[in-house]
Write a structure and sequence with these properties.
CATH class: Alpha Beta
Helix content: 25-40%
Structural class: alpha/beta
CATH superfamily: Glycosidases
CATH architecture: Alpha-Beta Barrel
Largest sheet: 8 strands, parallel, barrel
CATH topology: TIM Barrel
Radius of gyration: 20 Å
Order of helices and strands: HEHEHHEEHEEHEHHEHHEHEHEHH
Oligomer: single chain
Number of domains: 1
Number of helices: 14
Strand content: 5-15%
Length: 428
C-alpha cells in the first residue's frame, strides 16, 4: 500500500507470483485555517454498545487515489469531499477510517518537519489554506468513527529527480539520506539518523492530534525491481557489523523502526493503537516450514525485510491488517488458506488480527471471474468468521466503497453489517 496507486501495485504484486515452488476532536495548530463549516454530519447510529470489531476503510491520498479528486481544489471543495467520504463510511456501517496523511515524505497537516503535500494544492510546500488531518479527526469523531493516521515511512517521491522536491525538503538538505531505486526516491532505512527523522516527522502529527491509531502500510524496503539492487552497500559497511548478512541487518533496521515507533506512540498518546498492514504473504512454506501454503513471488521477510510474523508473536503491534487481496481458490495465494495461517500467527498474542480486503477488484473487468461476483467479498467475511482470531476487516479503498461498482460492499453490509457499528475496542 502506498506506491503511486495501491490498486496498481497490488496488481503488480499479484503478477509477481510464480507457479513454481519458491504481495474527542483534535486541536488545530495555531495559524491553521479552516474553511466555512459544511453541513452537519450524518446521524450517528445509536447502537454503540454492540461489539463489532474492526470495520474499516483506507482513504488513500497518494497520487490523489481516493482524495482529493484532483490537486488544486479550493479548500472548501476539498473539505466537502473529505466529509463525504466519512459520511459514506457511516452509511456502510463502518467504524474506522485509515487516512493517509504522509504519502511521500510530506504532510497533510502543518508539519514542523516536512512540506505540505503536492496532492492538495498541486505544488509541494504550498499551504492549502486549511488543516485536513485536524478536520478529519474532528469530523470523524463527530460521526462516531475512529480516525487512524496512515504514514508511509520511507518513500520520498514517486519520481527519481531530487530537483523536483521543494528546495527546503529534508531530502534536498540531506542528499546522503536518499537512495534512488526503480524510478523513485527513498530514504535509506539503514541510517540511524533517517530512522530518527522519519519517526520525529510522524510523531509531530501524533502529538498534535487526538488520532485513534497510527498506521503503516506495506512499504518498508521497496518492493524489488528486476535487475536493480538497492544502493545501501556503503551504509551496510558502516552500520552492519555484527550481522552475518545484509538481509539480517536490513530486517533489524525495520524491527527497530517498528519497536521504537510503538514505544513512542504509547508514550505520547497511550490510547492510540499502532498497526501495520503488510503484504499478505510472510514466507511461502517452500521457503520456510512456518510459512503459508502459497507460491508468492513476493515474501515480506525476504523481499521487504519486514518480519511481520515476528512483530505479532513478540507483541510489538496492537493490530495487524495483512492485505489478503486474493479470491477464494486463487492458485498461488488462496484467501481460504491465508486466513487460517494468519489466525494461527495471531493466536495467543496481544496483537489483534484484521483482514485487508480488495474491494477495488470487485467488478474490475481486468480481474478473474471470482471478482465479477458481488458475493465474493461477503464469502470472505463468512469464511473469516470461522476463526475467532479475526477481529474485523478493512476495505481498500474509500473511492471503491463510494462507487461500489457491482454492489459488493452493499452485499457485505446486508450480510454482515446489519447492525450499527460499535468501536473496534469494544471487541476486546
Amino acid at each position: 500500500m502506498g506506491r503511486v496507486s495501491r490498486r496498481a501495485f497490488a496488481v503488480a504484486a499479484l503478477s509477481a507470483f510464480t507457479m513454481a515452488p519458491g504481495a474527542s476532536a483534535a486541536p488545530v495548530p495555531s495559524g491553521a485555517r479552516t474553511p466555512p463549516t459544511a453541513p452537519g454530519p450524518a446521524a450517528v447510529p445509536s447502537a454503540r454498545s454492540v461489539a463489532t470489531g474492526m470495520r474499516g476503510m483506507w482513504l488513500a491520498t497518494v497520487a490523489n487515489r481516493d482524495w482529493p479528486t484532483r490537486p488544486g481544489l479550493r479548500a472548501a471543495e476539498q473539505r466537502a469531499e473529505l466529509v463525504e467520504h466519512l459520511d459514506t463510511a457511516v452509511r456502510h456501517r463502518l467504524n474506522t477510517v485509515i487516512f493517509q496523511v504522509r504519502p511521500a515524505a510530506d504532510a497533510l497537516w502543518p508539519s514542523a518537519y516536512e512540506p505540505w503535500s503536492q496532492y492538495l494544492s498541486g505544488s509541494q510546500g504550498r499551504d492549502p489554506g486549511w488543516d485536513p488531518l485536524g478536520t478529519a479527526v474532528k469530523e470523524a469523531h463527530a460521526r462516531g468513527l475512529e480516525l487512524h493516521a496512515w504514514f508511509n515511512p520511507y518513500r520520498v517521491a514517486t519520481h527519481d529527480d531530487p530537483a523536483q522536491l521543494v528546495p527546503t525538503h529534508p531530502a534536498r538538505k540531506h542528499p546522503e539520506w536518499v537512495v534512488p531505486y526503480g524510478g523513485k526516491l527513498y530514504y535509506n532505512p539503514g541510517l540511524p539518523e533517517v530512522r530518527a527523522f522519519v519517526q520525529d516527522a510522524m510523531m509531530d502529527a501524533v502529538e498534535k492530534y487526538a488520532v485513534d491509531g497510527v498506521h503503516f502500510d506495506d512499504y518498508f524496503y521497496p518492493y524489488p525491481v528486476a535487475g536493480r539492487s538497492f544502493g545501501d552497500g556503503g551504509t551496510y559497511s558502516t552500520h552492519g557489523s555484527g550481522f552475518a548478512t545484509r538481509d539480517a541487518w536490513r530486517r533489524d533496521n525495520i524491527d527497530l523502526l517498528v519497536r521504537e515507533t510503538a514505544a513512542r506512540v504509547k508514550k505520547v498518546r497511550p490510547a492510540a493503537r499502532f498497526g501495520v498492514s503488510p503484504f499478505g504473504v510472510w514466507r511461502n512454506a517452500a521457503t520456510d516450514a512456518k510459512g503459508s501454503d502459497t507460491r508468492a513471488g513476493v515474501q515480506t521477510y525476504d523481499d521487504l525485510y519486514a518480519d511481520t510474523r515476528k512483530w505479532v508473536r513478540e507483541g510489538w503491534l496492537d493490530y495487524i491488517v495483512p492485505q489478503l487481496y486474493w479470491h477464494v481458490g486463487q492458485d498461488a495465494a488462496d484467501y481460504a488458506k491465508l486466513v487460517p495461517w494468519w489466525a494461527q500467527v495471531a493466536k495467543g498474542s496481544r496483537t489483534q488480527l484484521y483482514v485487508g480486503e480488495a474491494l477495488y477488484k470487485a467488478g474490475d473487468p481486468a480481474q478473474p471471474a471470482a471478482w465479477q461476483d458481488p458475493a465474493e467479498l461477503s464469502r470472505h467475511l463468512t469464511l473469516a468468521r470461522e476463526h475467532p482470531e479475526v477481529r474485523g476487516h478493512v476495505f481498500f479503498a474509500a473511492k471503491d466503497i463510494a462507487d461500489d461498482r457491482i454492489g459488493a460492499m452493499a452485499r457485505v453490509r446486508a450480510d454482515h453489517y446489519a447492525r450499527a457499528a460499535g468501536t473496534p475496542r469494544q471487541d476486546g
